[in-house]
Amino acid sequence: MAYGVPLAIIGLFCLQAVLGTGSAENNLKLKLFVKSSGEDTQSQSVYRDYPAYRSQFANVNTFAPEFFRTGYGNGLTSQAAFVEAINNRSTTWKAGVNPKRNDQYRPGVLSEESMKFQLPLGFVLMKDEQPLPASFDARQKWSYCPSMNMVRNQGCCDSSYAVAAVSTMTDRWCVHSEGKAQFNFGAFDVISCCHRCGFGCDGGVPNAVWHYWVENGITSGGAFGTHQGCQSYPFDVCKKSGEANNAPLCLRLCQPGYNVTYAEDKHYGRVAYTVPKDEERIMYEVFNFGPAQATFTMYTDFVQYKSGVYRHTFGVRVGTHSVKVMGWGVENNVKYWLCANSWGAQWGDDGFFKIVRGEDHLNFETNVVAGLPLFR
Ligand SMILES: *[C@@H]1O[C@H](CO)[C@@H](O)[C@H](O)[C@H]1NC(C)=O
Ligand SMILES: *[C@@H]1O[C@H](CO)[C@@H](O)[C@H](O)[C@H]1NC(C)=O
């Protein structure tokens, strides 16, 4: 039985902390064990040389016609040919043309910086171990959490590090209050005020967003144009080709008409952790504690995803992207993770997608992070 393993792992890592439990954990007889990281592994100097750092990534913003390169030497000049080339080659998923121009579908993770910011490892343990189902969809298990059906839209901003994180926190706020509390965490606070999280609209570090949640809290925020929450999301489509917007300034204010102050609107996490790089550990985490944030290498073919189980087939690397993992299953004998993207509900499979599971495809299983909410 696979779940005997973590006890041994825990001994190995000299666990130092057993956290207090919230209501969902008590009811499920679950415990989260966190391996203490000892000291903060993040060096303050990491982000000091920002202009030089940013220039390294400048070429990431030039999509077309590079965007349709196959990665096999032969350039394709049109999107139609690129889509056809993917469909000729791919056996598990279908490519198509999504409604927005390709350079509007943006990633948002700084992969090198992310490796420097480590969170402790967190293991979900259960007293009465149950086998995991062959397929699972968080939207069905927690049908009282409406946020799980909503797909975010990061717009013209390389902010998936923040958007996928706050989307996951919103779901977990609902899950761990058993539907009694809903709080729509917004990315505005993260991209404008969390300077250790990254560079606003030029990418960032998912782990640092979870750390910010615990240390500083995060405010609420509705979608672009909604005027909901403390600060609604500030970006929609790109005005100029290829160029991300600049993140808003950190004002520590809620928008006019919102009744609660910025400080009062802050809602906090109790703990943030990395889920061990293991298919079953990730499944166990999502099954018991709700959606988690996953990060993977993004290639140009991912932008063309329409249906099926995505496996990188064609194209060149765009960057690193972050999404919300919500479940799993098997389709035509191919194991997949079920995920929500943050490119709006018109992209892909109504905003969702499936990606190959169990092979650490594009480092997907290496970079899963999560946390638990703090209810006062
Ligand atoms: C796709 O396959 C068809 C049929 O084999 C072929 O005619 C076409 O050139 C291929 N297209 C691309 C872009 O590779
Ligand atoms: C403002 O706050 C009061 C008291 O908490 C509440 O009853 C009211 O509905 C709020 N108004 C708005 C517009 O949110």
Automatic annotation (TrEMBL):
The lineage of its organism: Eukaryota, Metazoa, Ecdysozoa, Arthropoda, Hexapoda. InterPro entries: Papain-like_cys_pep_sf, Pept_asp_AS, Pept_his_AS, Peptidase_C1A, Peptidase_C1A_C. One of its GO terms (biological process) is proteolysis. Keywords: Disulfide bond, Glycoprotein, Hydrolase, Protease, Signal, Thiol protease. GO terms for molecular function: cysteine-type peptidase activity. It comes from Anopheles epiroticus. SMART domains: Pept_C1. Residues 132-372 form the Peptidase C1A papain C-terminal domain. This is Peptidase C1A papain C-terminal domain-containing protein.
